[in-house]
């Protein structure tokens, strides 16, 4: 195991069916252990090895592995974009205390799992460089290509200096996001991946920012995801937003869902075994 692999203290139960999906775990029988691990490491992959829950942070190599599966000829430029972004974000940290590069890496990983093209994944890695570093659009165009530079510029927030109030700035940024649909839908896809990872790590924000971001997600990003057919992202954004906007409702629905899932485990296991037997014939 790599140094960044962490193990949960307690064992998983034998009747759990767990699988990795976009950096978080899905469990048919979601134990307290898994929920606690998720709360501490929201940008991780999980594995069940020898009955023990193994927690592994998403790494640069994980991203390259996904790229190799569907677009192996573009690995070199993805490497270049990652190292480029890592160098530019050196010394910057998220509110979680993690190095800032963790965020663009996870955004790129989400995009790669969607089998996004080379330029989109590169733009995901570079998406905060214009806003948070000294680099300019012309530099990205020179070092990569004009298409990547345009995508990065399309997802970059407008400068606060151009507006008299925060509200005016928010309206202008919303217009820019929506305009992206007509310019290049990949801008919207990158923004959705960016928002999805930010929502997954929202626990590090203040309660006010949590509710503000969750409301903005429901009002802007969920409809955008629906508009372009990104239904998996839409559903996860809705779940994450509900968790902060109406926590009591969220917990009630989640408990009922887990109760139903637990009741369905015997049927699911029977169906799985029957399918395996059929495939062996």
In short:
This protein is mainly alpha-helical and 281 residues long. The protein has helices at 32-40, 60-70, 75-88, 102-113, 118-126, 129-132, 137-143, 146-155, 166-183, 185-200, 207-227, 231-245, 247-280; strands at 5-11, 18-21, 24-27, 44-49, 52-57.
Give a verbal description of the structure.
- The chain has 281 residues and is mainly α.
- Helix content is 64%, strand content 10%.
- The chain contains 13 helices and 5 strands.
- Helix 4 packs across helix 10, helix 10 runs parallel beside helix 12 and helix 12 runs antiparallel to helix 13.
- The relative contact order is 0.09.
- The N terminus is likely disordered.
Q: What's the overall geometry?
A: globular
Rg over C-alpha atoms, rounded to the nearest angstrom: 20 Å
State the major sheet: 3 strands, antiparallel
- Contiguous low-pLDDT stretches (5 residues minimum) are 1-42, 46-55
- End-to-end span in angstroms? 36 Å
How many distinct helices?
A: 13
Strand order of the largest sheet: 1-5-4
Query: Secondary-structure element order, as H and E?
Result: EEEHEEHHHHHHHHHHHH
What's the number of extended β-strand segments?
Answer: 5
Share of helical residues? 55-70%
* Percent of residues in beta strands: 5-15%
- The chain-level structural class is mainly alpha
What number is the mean pLDDT? 81
Salient structural properties:
single chain, 281 residues, two-stranded antiparallel ribbon, 5 strands, 10% strand, disordered N terminus
